[in-house]
Design brief:
- By secondary structure, this protein is mostly helical.
- The protein is built from seven helices and no strands.
- The structure holds protoporphyrin IX containing FE.
- Residues 39, 42-43, 61-62, 65-66, 83, 86-87, 91, 93, 97-98, 101, 132-133, 136 line the site of protoporphyrin IX containing FE (HEM).
Length: 141
């Protein structure tokens, strides 16, 4: 579980992310699809061109889900339960892909919020995203 100071790093940055979820989430997905093209296979029904409306809208959904998680840091399992069902039972995303997305989200945070994304903040976000990924992949078997 996250420590109190790790939670503070998530909660301090979230209000700066919240008004920009489509742009920031879209950038994280653009980087995912460019650097790790195998991840595109799950999105064959999307327009995956750089900055497309599909990519921004989906990026917004992903970051908004992280925002919901950030507001339930003491009950991540409950907050992410239905998304966990979706990714495990319907989408069957290979669990290895979560680390790739976690990485590109952190690159986007580091670029956009250089003053906030200290080494300690980075470590806290990495732990938060890995806890989210752990929950989203927990029902695979
Ligand atoms: C759908 C969140 C990781 C593939 C979604 C949705 C959300 C979400 C909120 C929309 C659910 C809905 O419409 O009700 C997240 C979060 C992730 C994550 C928070 C980790 C931080 C991944 C990864 C992949 C993936 C790693 C694959 C590379 C998909 C796909 C859909 C989806 C294919 C359905 C898209 C559509 O057809 O609209 N995810 N996701 N997700 N996710 Fe994830």
């Amino acid at each position: 579980p996250l420590t109190a100071s790790e939670k503070a790093f998530i909660l301090n940055l979230w209000p700066k992310i919240a008004p920009r979820v489509n742009d920031l989430g879209g950038d994280a997905l653009d980087r995912l699809f460019l650097s790790f093209p195998q991840t595109k296979t799950y999105f064959s029904h999307f327009d995956l061109s750089h900055g497309s409306a599909d990519v921004k809208a989906h990026g917004g959904k992903v970051l908004s889900a992280l925002g919901k998680a950030a507001s339930h840091l003491n009950d991540l399992d409950g907050a992410l339960s239905s998304l966990s069902d979706l990714h495990a039972y319907n989408l069957r995303v290979d669990p290895g892909n979560f680390a790739l997305l976690s990485h590109t989200i952190q690159v986007v945070l580091a670029i956009n919020f250089p003053n906030d994304f200290s080494a300690e903040a980075h470590a806290a976000w990495d732990k938060f995203l890995s806890e989210v990924a752990e929950i989203l992949t927990s029902k695979y078997r």
